[in-house]
Amino acid sequence: MIHSQFIRTAIFSAFLGLAWSAQAAEPAVAAASAAAPASAASGGHRHHHRTDVKAHAAEHVASGAHAAHAMHHAHWEYVNAHETGPGHWGDLDHAFEECSKGVHQSPVNIDKTVKAALPALEFSYSSIAPVILNNGHTVQVNLPSGQKLKVGDQSYELLQFHFHTPSEEAISNKHAPMVAHFVHKNADGKLGVVALLIDIGKEPSALDAVFDHLPRPGEKITVDDLSLDLAAALPKGLGYYNLEGSLTTPPCSEGVNWMILKEHATLTRAHVRAFQHIFHANARPTQPVNDRVIKESL
User: Fold this and answer.
1) Angle at CA 128, nearest 5°, toward 251 and 140?
2) Residue among 137, 162, 164, 184 flagged as catalytic
3) pLDDT digits over 149-168, tens only?
4) What angle do CA 206, 209, 215 make, to 5 degrees?
């Protein structure tokens, strides 16, 4: 049985770890909402609770320099041919200027690397009850506090994770079908993002708990008794590439510590297609590496 409060207005929004913005959706998003498959059937007898993201926007506003202006930013999208696409993000809003003027932007194509004794990624992840929302740009999973990552002398807390298709990062010019970005923040407010590329596979995945319950655009879902084992979502090998970069969505703020895992996860073809049914493509094109050195763990 599903308890639903169907959305009356689809919402474009972006929770970037620094800010979460919401604005009125375009008709295309409303159409996508109508077309998106209801995923409740795969949830067995669990009760889904669907609510309008707009009604709960205040819950997701994060502290940070952009938070005060989050509700007033210009609409942006991923279609390059449109005037609101990635090639024009820097022109849409004064707060987005770094998208076009920044020199350490993300994502990048990882081609030339330098082997280095990078600190180990020490994850302290556990099983959590996820809150799954569709903010018009991606499916994002919000979670309670307590999920930690330690990298050398830096300690981070996991804020949220979300997905892109295809993967925003490329390895030797090759993109994976999808990527998950785990967005962390340390005590100084610096972001550390772990990118987990996702291939097509046949075996069950810990991430199935999310993809069995994909929300429609502008909708937030909680599922009774649903548990997501975050630790099990990570690959066994935790070797990674490391570089300084930016948010991959406006405002494209730089100073983000990127850790791209070398080992990939998998999802079934059906789950990848279900996501792509909602988001045909939601990946920023790769950006110039410029003067950065991409380090690769030994």
Assistant:
1) 25
2) 137
3) 999 999 999 999 999 999 99
4) 140
Give residue 47's pLDDT.
66
- Which string of b and e fits 272-295 if b means at least 16 CB within 10 Å? bebbeebbeebbbebbebeeeebe
Tokens of 27: 């008709």
Give Cβ neighbours of residue 58 (< 8 Å, ≥ 6 apart).
none
Does residue 16 contact residue 248 with C-beta atoms inside 8 Å?
no
Structure-token pair, residue 85: 């696409």
Which residue type sits at 217?
P
Question: At residue 225, what are phi and psi to the nearest 5 degrees?
Answer: 65, 15
212 contacts: CB under 8 Å, gap ≥ 6: 39, 42, 43, 271
Does 137 qualify as catalytic in the annotation? yes
Distance in angstroms (rounded) separating the CA atoms of residues 115 and 31: 48
**pLDDT one-digit tens code per residue, 112-131:** 999 999 999 999 999 999 99
Task: Burial-class residue 60 by CB neighbours within 10 Å (0-12, 13-18, 19+).
Answer: buried
